[in-house]
Amino acid sequence: MTLNPPICAKCLMPSTYPGIMLDKEGTCNFCQNYRKKEPLGEERLIERLRSKSGGEFDCVLGISGGKDSCYVAYLAKEKFGLRALAVCYDFPFLVELARQNIKKVCDGLNLDVLFVKSRNNIEYDFQRNHLMSLSGTKTTWGQCIFCHYGIEGVLYNVAKEKNIPFILSGVTENELWNPGNRTSFLLRRVKKLPLKDLLRFVYYQSKAYLNLMDQRRQFRIPGNSCFNVYRRAVLPGTGPEVIQVFEYVKWDQELIEKTLRDRTGWQKPPRATSWRYDCILEPLLDYTYKKEFGISTVGIYLSGLIRAGLITREEAVNVQQISERQEHLESSLKAALEFLEVPKNIQDKYFRG
Length: 353
Known about the structure:
The chain is an alpha/beta fold. Helices cover about 50% and strands about 5% of the residues. The longest helix has 24 residues.
């Protein structure tokens, strides 16, 4: 990564991000190729939801305390009149404000909520083993892998057990990006490790692998191997059907936050952006993306909002500068490492060089 790489004239993407190309005017290919998608409409969503009937509930939805999942809960219960069940994957990294917001939203909407925990605290053990293994690489690639499968597994199992036909998701298009194979980025760094760090990586990554196997045993999804733990979950073609709500309903950050505040008492976190505030591990992604590519995940997210006309470039730059301060990124990483009781000599490896 070069210092101060060229940056897209329209969004915030630097030339050091995989797959980025800037034209003569300095505009990146992501901006050039962007085509705005119009929502499919609430009528089509309601029609789809009415196509199947379940038992006690019409739909299950994941809720994390974040604005998008809470707004999906609001839409399901208040706007569409669905018999909805909110489900929280209760892993140990959920921040206290997120827990409070889940309670406020579900109480305010009179919405049933189910908290699902794993046995044996496997998420904590996985994350500790994983970060112990990666200290020599000075990056945190793969930290979210337990969550990617866990959320899918929990929602699928609840829906299947309770005969619920639909799983409602609040993921938006601006949260989805693909810089390439994360494993290859990590392995490039692992190959350069001194022998002592390499042995540490093998030892602790083997323990992390067993944690992920345990998670897949606890939250089984048919067709997903308990051994191929690095593969994203794939839901069976039969069974609960996943609906991306914001493919049908317009995503408007100000409207979402105002609605939740007024109707449920939802509280916005005291930070530059309310996006993905609900997990204490989220800033670790920013730390690694900034180190690897020269832009944090917040910066990538903001770039998507710029293309969609949901924020000005000037506004996005202000948020990015706050979110990407080196002292902020390092203090967030340190807080997570201390929460996981990683020894100080291992912590120090993340901050050297």
